[in-house]
Design brief:
Blueprint: E1 2-6, E2 9-13, H1 27-37, H2 47-63, H3 69-75, H4 82-86, H5 90-96, H6 105-115
Antiparallel strand pairs: 1-2
Length: about 120
């Protein structure tokens, strides 16, 4: 487990950088994880990024899964490939949104890594 400090917060992450407690997430936590992942050097995150992250979280709360990127973009009224324009890959968006590590994390990461290289 890793603890990162950000603007007075102690944020607990697992060994792969996923937030330990789903309910600890807020915009500051998103900023801290985004900085750690190299997605953003400034906070607050853009309106577009936050819309995507909030939608992913709400969808996850309701369905216990993550929506496909095209569905995300449609529902936040952004261009079709918005998730790929705002984040390096969907797994990074998942991390910044404070979602738990996927069960098949190794397989998922390998698949995403191959797709984006």
């Amino acid at each position: 487990m890793t603890t990162i400090q950000y603007e007075g917060l102690n944020i607990e992450l697992d060994e792969d950088g996923f937030l330990k407690n789903f309910d600890d997430w807020n915009e500051k936590v998103a900023c801290a994880i985004a900085e750690k992942e190299g997605v953003s050097k400034t906070c607050p995150l853009t309106k577009e990024k936050m819309e995507i992250l909030r939608f992913i979280r709400e969808y996850y709360k309701k369905f216990s899964s993550v929506p496909i990127p095209r569905f995300v973009c449609k529902n936040v009224n952004q261009p079709q490939k918005c998730e790929f324009e705002e984040f390096p890959d969907p797994l990074t968006a998942w991390k910044i949104a404070g979602l738990p590590k996927p069960l098949a994390f190794g397989e998922l990461f390998d698949t995403i890594e191959k797709r984006f290289k």
